[in-house]
Write a structure and sequence with these properties.
389 residues; 15 helices; 7 strands; flat
């Protein structure tokens, strides 16, 4: 397993195997606590990477087919009934048994309307359990904390000195009924953050603080100095200095970093070789150092991100001086784990495979012809049926 710091740890997969009593061999492995916690069946390996995929797919799977089955059956029954009525009326018209005026397009229009209703609602049918959950909880999924995006590509472009960065144009209505327009750019919130928050990195700033508009009274009075224990002013260079402040969140959020795959794999940085002449490794180190510093290192200018014109040297110096907090180091490790390490985890061996020895029968060719298992030609099937009957 690869770690962003200068040491490695050995991580091995494990299996959760509860005690099974007589008769349990006919039931899936289950644990009530694990089922409640993961909100799915837990007859999977809990210490294996397949568990992540299983739990994620199970909780996000579509169940419209089962929940809309009864509604679909009602629609089909109505369609058949309408078709039967239409045929019955047509037959009476042909034999001259009815003299009532009949609208020939009524049945056809009703069928098309019913089909349209079904097509529109087929993907929105909910079970009673899911409907109750949505009403009670407000959404299907509930998280302990909210999220806030960090546009990583925007920050990379700024650090490389590119022009035409993306921004929003804010419209501010003033007291004299005039309108002021200011540029709202994400990177400005970082480099022109309040002086009281000078030691916070981008990740920590977004997690703990949020940008809030100043009160209309302060804007009208021209009182831009609004500071308290939880509210701070931006630097005057910030385009929104007059109209916005930075306020501490009531509950911290989890920053959502876009494009974490931009991070190189630690195993490709050749950490054992401090001084390397490999240009590919040097390029990957520079890229890794750039991304880590942009997100987890406090800076105010793009030149703060380099030491001797190198992102990697500044990154190493920041680690030595402990300018990257332990919490940020844990997040960096999580990025490495999710992006790369989980793919390299070995699969835990199956207990039955370990304790069972397969001894093939002399007439059993499955050991040598696995690819032909459960296959039969049409002639072989007909021959078997002829033998039976």
């Amino acid at each position: 397993m690869a770690f962003h710091r200068w040491h490695n740890k050995k991580i091995t997969p494990f299996k959760y195997v509860p005690k099974r009593n007589i008769g349990d061999q006919f039931m899936n492995i289950n644990n009530d606590l694990a089922t409640t916690l993961f909100a799915c069946n837990n007859n999977v390996v809990l210490g294996d990477r397949v568990c992540f995929y299983y739990v994620t797919l199970y909780q996000t799977k579509k169940n419209q087919k089962e929940e809309s089955a009864s509604f679909h059956n009602v629609c089909l029954a109505l369609c058949k009934r309408i078709q039967y009525q239409q045929d019955h009326i047509s037959e009476k018209e042909f034999t001259g048994e009815t003299t009532e005026e009949i609208a020939p397009d009524f049945c056809e229009g009703l069928k098309r309307m019913l089909s349209a209703v079904y097509a529109h609602t087929a993907h929105n049918v909910l079970s009673s359990t899911m409907a109750w959950k949505l009403l009670y909880q407000g959404s299907r999924f509930k998280f302990s904390h909210g999220t806030e995006p960090i546009p990583l590509h925007h920050m990379i472009e700024w650090s490389e000195g590119r022009n035409n960065l993306s921004f929003k144009l804010k419209k501010i209505n003033l007291q004299d009924k005039t309108v002021d327009h200011v540029v709202d750019m994400f990177i400005n919130n970082i480099i022109y953050r309040p002086f009281e928050l000078n030691n916070l990195s981008c990740y920590e700033l977004i997690s703990e603080y949020e940008m809030q508009p100043s009160s209309k009274k302060n804007i009208e009075d021209g009182d831009y100095n609004i500071e308290s224990a939880t509210t701070f002013n931006f630097c005057k260079e910030h385009p929104c200095y007059k109209y916005n402040v930075m306020r501490k969140r009531n509950k911290f959020v989890v920053p959502s970093i876009s494009s974490t795959k931009e991070f190189p794999n630690i195993t490709e940085l050749n950490l054992d070789n401090v001084h390397t002449d490999d240009l590919v490794v040097i390029e990957r180190r520079e890229r890794y150092g750039q991304l880590v510093l942009l997100l987890f290192y406090p800076f105010r200018d793009r030149f703060d991100l380099k030491l001797d014109n190198s992102y990697w040297k500044r990154y190493k110096k920041a680690l030595e001086n402990k300018l990257i907090t332990s919490k940020c180091l844990q997040v960096i490790q999580n990025i490495q784990d999710v992006t790369y390490n989980c793919k390299d985890l070995k699969v835990a061996g199956d207990i039955i495979d370990k304790t069972t020895e397969y001894v093939p029968h002399e007439d059993d060719n499955k050991k040598f012809n696995d690819e032909k298992e459960n296959t039969a030609s049409l002639k072989e099937f007909e021959a078997v049926m002829n033998d039976i009957y």
